[in-house]
Write a structure and sequence with these properties.
Distance between the termini: 47 Å
Helix content: 25-40%
Number of helices: 8
Strand content: 15-25%
CATH topology of the domain at 28-160 and 209-256: BirA Bifunctional Protein, domain 2
Number of strands: 11
Shape: elongated
Order of helices and strands: HHEEHEEHEEHEEEEHEHH
CATH architecture of the domain at 28-160 and 209-256: 2-Layer Sandwich
């Protein structure tokens, strides 16, 4: 008789005792947000593409109009690897790879993880998730850029949110803009999440720079379009009223069980 069967014979089984409740896992809030973002953009005609997290200098910087001696490189605190490889600082390299192999018109998004060597605080971390967007055609303008953004926020938050557009600077777009939404954690009053400003940056972008088109073999006389970037982490913070980005990577079950 096996040890297990012997133990049952000696102790018996109380068939009236309630069974043990099964523990069910929870989807991470970033997973929930990513799925919703992808669904919204697919409904608006965007395709979803991906690319490597370990990149070359060409795709991460050079092809995006950020040459080696460009001061804008200081905007990205890069984590360098061996053999001149690096951990991508944004998912814009995915757009370059896509444009090299496809001809316009098209509209795509590229969600994925990015890495930066910077100090962490309530709204910054060394790793986080981006969604890059790109829409190219013969008559694409900033009106399309703003319309897509407003429609996305309406669908994502299921309500109207206050937005503002500010002039910005990015080497790969011209003109460039910063699009902010009113902080939904403090409702615009000011908190640690929004740096006490009442606003949080969620949608920087602009019209694709002609040099980027030239790098992938497009003629900027015939094509134009816009590119943008969304922080999935900050979207999740706004949606679920989370006041510290570091909670997403804490592996605290008490936090994850809420979703």
């Amino acid at each position: 008789m096996g040890l297990y069967n012997l133990k049952i014979k000696q102790q018996g089984i109380d068939v009236t005792a309630p069974g043990k409740k099964q523990f069910f896992g929870h989807l991470h809030p970033l997973t929930l947000v990513r799925r919703q973002v992808e669904e919204i953009f697919q409904q608006m005609g965007f395709s979803i593409i991906g690319g490597p997290e370990i990149e070359t200098e060409w795709y991460n910087f050079d092809a995006l109009n950020i040459p080696k001696d460009h001061p804008a490189r200081d905007m990205w605190d890069t984590l360098w690897l061996k053999n001149k490889l690096l951990l991508r600082t944004h998912t814009s390299p995915v757009q370059i790879r896509y444009m090299e192999k496809h001809q316009p018109p098209f509209r795509i998004i590229a969600p994925g993880r990015v890495f930066r060597h910077e100090a962490t605080d309530a709204s910054h971390d060394v790793q986080f998730y981006h969604v890059e967007g790109l829409m190219i055609g013969k008559d694409i303008s900033m009106a399309n850029f703003k319309a897509i953004a407003k429609e996305f926020f309406q669908r994502f938050f299921n309500k109207e949110v206050k937005i503002r557009m500010r002039p910005g600077y990015f080497p790969f777009t011209e003109p460039s803009f910063e699009m902010d939404i009113q902080c939904l954690v403090c409702k615009g009053k000011g908190c640690s999440t929004c740096g006490q400003t009442g606003w949080i940056e969620l949608w920087p972008g602009g019209m694709v720079h002609p040099n980027v088109f030239k790098a992938v073999g497009y003629n900027p006389k015939f094509w134009q379009g816009f590119a943008f970037c969304i922080s999935l982490d900050r979207l999740a913070m706004m949606k679920y009223k989370i006041n510290d980005i570091r909670l997403f990577y804490s592996n605290d079950l008490r936090f994850l069980e809420q979703f």
